[in-house]
Amino acid sequence: MLDRSFLQWPFFDDHHRKLAADLESWCEREMRDFDPGAEIDNACRKVIKKFGDAGWLRYAVPKSGGGMHERLDVRSICIIRETLARRSGLAEFSFAMQGLGSGPISQFGSDALKKKYLPGVVAGERIPAFAISEADAGSDLSAMQTTAKKSGSGYVINGTKTWISNAGIATHYVVFCRFTEGPPTSFVALVVEATNPGLKVAERIEVIAPHPLGTLEFKDCQVAADALVGTEGKGMGVALGTLDIFRPTVGAAALGFSRRALDESVAWTKNRKAFGQNLSDFQITKTKLADMALAIDASALLVYRAAWARDSGADRIPREAAMAKLFATESAQRVIDDAVQLFGGMGVVSGHPVERLYREIRALRIYEGTSEIQKLILAEQLLKDEAAGRSHA
Q: Is residue 393 part of a domain?
């Protein structure tokens, strides 16, 4: 049951509807039998190249780097992430990281950096990573201890990053560091090649939904001055500006997981017999399915409202992005949990679609800002707007 009625909402243009239809057709041909198996790294590399060959990665970067639109079209990215999430969590992750990992360069990088890195990202030949989290600096990014200091005409990096997506398969990393030669609030973002001798993948981290994830160690890691992304000392702005764009797309991935869970649940309950009737005939089942559908549409409204706001010219959408990510991921957790409950014992069988969804959704409430952090962002924005005399009524 493929529900695309939301594409008729006023948030979308004809090219968004065409993208959704074209991608769905492509997935039917190319992704129907996608099974990453145990070789997660190779599966990611292969599907990224597949996306590149098909042209889908043109939506992950702006036209200045070989992309589709003059600036990132967030609605297009949301549509792609939602569509892929219905098929495969790993495939969706792989596409998303091509955008997020290259986001600092595409949004804040010099022309030279864009020319060096972005065409390879579009082709699926370069795999980027966004290296910001640390053991004691996850939600509180200002607590990061990885440092960068001037060294000749470049910089030298020392420290450890963890929970880094694409660790071990990335061809380059955008690394966020405390800048030792500025005030305490001074940070820098630097591009580090995976082959840099000062960089080591210290360990890989196994999580409940297998993705390439790991810890990076930097020891006297030297990079040239032209590896700087944005302005020296303004690295935190690079990070937050990038996350502002991609947080609504996390909500879109959650939407894809939710829609798959609802589709599986409707099909199951219409055919599952219990006490002499279909499971779907029970009122308690109908109310659960109704709640799931309601949560999905409400999430979609917030996700695509945020994406539309950014695409309409806003430089920052902290309030809309936080609402979209918070509500969509929290709602998806409930929708998928309800799906598992409807499936009963089948819902917890390893490898079953709703069991896989249950493992996939959990991390989305944590990465790119936990649900608790989104609430703080919302509250701070409300208070700031109140002080400025703006009303949300």
A: no
Residues 325-369 pLDDT 10s:
999 999 999 999 999 999 999 999 999 999 999 999 999 999 888
Output the pLDDT for position 375: 95
Q: Are residues 64 and 154 both part of a single domain?
A: no
Name the residue type at position 5: S
Rounded to whole angstroms, how far apart are CA atoms 222 and 156? 4
Same domain, 361 and 245: yes
Q: Give the single-character DSSP code of 137.
A: B
Same domain, 379 and 270: yes
Query: Which domain-ending residue is among 180, 211, 233?
Result: 233
Instruction: Write out the two tokens for 198.
Output: 């000062």
Contacts 24+ apart (CB under 8 A), 50-54: 50/124, 51/94, 51/95, 51/98, 51/124, 52/122, 52/123, 52/124, 52/125, 53/124, 54/26, 54/30
For residue 342, give its domain range. Answer: 237-387
Beta bridge partners of 302: none
6/194 Cα distance (integer angstroms):
41
Domain count, the chain: 3
* pLDDT at residue 392 in the model: 58
- Catalytic residue chosen out of the listed positions 82, 264, 330, 368: 368
**Residue 94 falls inside a structural domain:** yes
Give every residue of the chain whose pLDDT is below 70, as ranges. 1, 386, 389-393
Predicted pLDDT at 249: 97
Q: Is the pTM of this model over 0.90?
A: yes
**Which CATH number does the domain housing residue 298 bear?**
1.20.140.10
- Tens of pLDDT, residues 219-246: 999 999 999 999 999 999 999 999 989 9
Q: Quick check: is 217 catalytic?
A: no
167 contact partners, CB below 8 Å, separation of at least 6:
129, 201, 204, 205, 212, 213, 214, 215, 216
Please report the pLDDT score of residue 121 as a whole number: 98
Is residue 160 within 8 Å of residue 215, measured between CB atoms?
yes
